[in-house]
Write the structure tokens for this entry.
Amino acid sequence: MGKRSLYITLLCFAFGLLGCEEKLNPIASYTYTGSNKPAPAEVRFTNNSKNATNYVWEFGDGATSTETNPKHTYSTGGTFNVKLTAKNGKNIDSQSFSISIF
């Protein structure tokens, strides 16, 4: 956590200010298991994002999800660019990785 984020968090806690968490910038982060297998392959995504209130997942095959920790089945093989967008009010961050299904 950066000094600015820590300072805002401490102010929010000390003064009991509502809505302060929306001033913190989200940090999108995730891990996954189940790739590098033959299709159809179920991949489970674990959301490790910080300071976010909602999420949008793009699985690279046209499918999307707004679940926090989704699972997705790839019906065909290929390389897929998976993108997680983490949001907090007007603040947005995203993380992308390519995964392979055989």
About this structure: The mean pLDDT is 89. The helical segments are 3-15.
